[in-house]
Design goal:
459 residues; alpha+beta; Uridine Diphospho-n-acetylenolpyruvylglucosamine Reductase, domain 2; Uridine Diphospho-n-acetylenolpyruvylglucosamine Reductase, domain 3; Vanillyl-alcohol Oxidase, Chain A, domain 3; seven-stranded antiparallel sheet; 17 helices; globular
Amino acid sequence: MSGIEALLSELQDIPAETDRALVRQKSRDFFWYSPVLKRQLDKLTAEAVVSPRSEDELARVLAACVRHRTPVTPRGAGTGNYGQAMPLCGGIVLDLSGLDRVLWAKPGVVRAQCGAKLGEIDAVTRASVGGELRFHPSTRRTATIGGFIAGGSSGIGSCTWGILREPGNILGLRLMTMEESPRVLELRGPDIQKANHAYGTNGIITEVEMPLAPAWTWVDLIAGFPTLEAAARFADGFTRQDGIVKKLVSVIDAPVPQRYFKAFEGVIPDGVAVVLLMVAEPFLDLVPGLLAAYGGTELYRRETEAADVPLYEYSWNHTTLQALKTDRSITYLQTLFPPPSHLAKVAEMAERFGDEVPMHLEFVKFGGEVCCFGLQLVRFTTEARLAEIIAAHEAAGCPIFNPHAFTLEEGGMKKVDTLQLAFKREADPHGLLNPGKMLAWENPDWTPRDGVHLFEAAG
């Protein structure tokens, strides 16, 4: 009997899947946005998928995996882009989509199990307390709240509320450790950062408590501008209008929307840069005057929930997805254009790279200041050229959160998170949770100078 067979024999009443095709399907996320990750990860698969339906079943699975020293890769809906849910070392994929209940909602706050979908949470909170989640990724209709916390960082709503690491944007996390006798812990206050955006490497999040914003009727707007500079200046100014309730301020330069936004063919004139907006309905009368001040023109308006595909699915990481639907040579970057010189840095990089790196900006609050994240498209040629583009941005003072790396450190702040490492030593002493994704586990002194993925080094 193989190790996986022995493991599953202990868990016979818990749903499990060993069919190779189905296991391979559940062993994948959207890593293929990156040609680098596609080369590295495309052939990886787990040996089985296990799908607990309760915390009790989850505890049994984790305890059995510890006894058998079986690696565990947690998964929500698998909508991440960086290989967060890819099993580097075989073992099992832990499908948490069965823990999907909204546990309770009160004015201003909701608590849900990790597998609850973001859209379904909003449906419950809108109906019961008139609130909605402060922000969500462009995969709102499919993503789960646990996957968003473990693998995401910001999204639609960040123009008002900042990013997940901002104090107050997560109120509580309940998680289970991976030990011989798994413990259930509640993290609150600063302790939340022990497991926030940790890819499930140091505990399995089972419940999330989140603040709510007032639920508005949202309206999608597309505005056109003659130049990228005018679009970016408007977006920066609009984000600073704190009296206008907004959820999305996204700048996309020509020719990206003209080439790749098939649902808007004929709506966006050639050569026009666009700003995608989500604005609360009572504030729409204020938009035309602000557009006119920057030379902008309204091109499209529709209530968000009435659209077949809401405008947010053309923003953030979905801008890249829209391009990939017709051009598989496209990839992307994730760039911080830091304040207060973010607009000047955008202009500098746009001038330097032109149509090789078409500009896509998401305006956000970051540490209380307005700036923009670049999710620029890249017309990919070689990995060497991609590395040159990344290096040029960083040399110019525009940090890259590398979407072509699957480890926490390389894709994040390029340093070891000592808080998360210490918590992993406590919660996962055998290093079985999502192994290979935290470089510091094997090398606590890792720095970017080491210049190699742990997985590649091990291979």
